């Protein structure tokens, strides 16, 4: 069993998301769509994982009871988890399209071939 330092893991995940954002900035439209497909993929995507993490964090009652954070912070965390969940539900209707982005090989966009010029006759 691997033992993780949860604080270091959280920092690494944040760094990886920042690196992914940098990749998204310079990505082609097709590559950006595939990246977002992986981020938004309902079963294993980043958004779903973050939503689950936020929901789990909002249910951590131990620190709240010990006064580590004011109750308002825990309520705000729960609201954020609910908002993320609602966003994920809104995206569920597009799950098949998002899944296709992650499964289909990148396609190259063919430029339209020039058509021959049409000569018009004047009468």
List the helices and strands and how they pair.
Blueprint: H1 6-26, H2 29-40, H3 46-58, H4 61-65, H5 71-92, H6 95-103
Helix pairs in contact: 1-2, 2-6, 3-5
In round numbers, the mean pLDDT is 80
Q: Name the helicity range.
A: 55-70%
Largest sheet: none
Overall structural class, as computed from helix and strand content, comes to mainly alpha
Q: What form results from the Cα inertia axes?
A: globular
Give keywords.
mainly alpha; globular; 123 residues
Description:
This protein is mainly α. It is 67% helix and 0% strand. The protein has 6 helices and no strands. Helix 1 (6-26) runs antiparallel to helix 2 (29-40) and helix 2 (29-40) packs across helix 6. The longest helix is centred in the middle third of the chain and has 22 residues, at 71-92. It is globular. The termini are far apart.
């Amino acid at each position: 069993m691997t033992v993780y330092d949860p604080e270091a893991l959280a920092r690494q995940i944040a760094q990886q998301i920042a690196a992914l954002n940098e990749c998204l900035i310079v990505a082609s439209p097709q590559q950006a769509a595939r990246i977002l497909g992986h981020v938004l993929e309902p079963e294993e995507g980043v958004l779903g994982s973050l939503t689950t993490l936020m929901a789990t964090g909002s249910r951590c009652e131990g620190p709240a009871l010990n006064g580590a954070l004011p109750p308002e912070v825990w309520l705000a965390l729960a609201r954020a988890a609910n908002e993320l969940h609602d966003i994920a539900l809104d995206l569920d209707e597009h799950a098949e399209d998002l899944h296709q982005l992650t499964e289909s090989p990148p396609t190259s966009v063919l430029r339209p071939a020039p058509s021959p010029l049409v000569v018009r006759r004047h009468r």
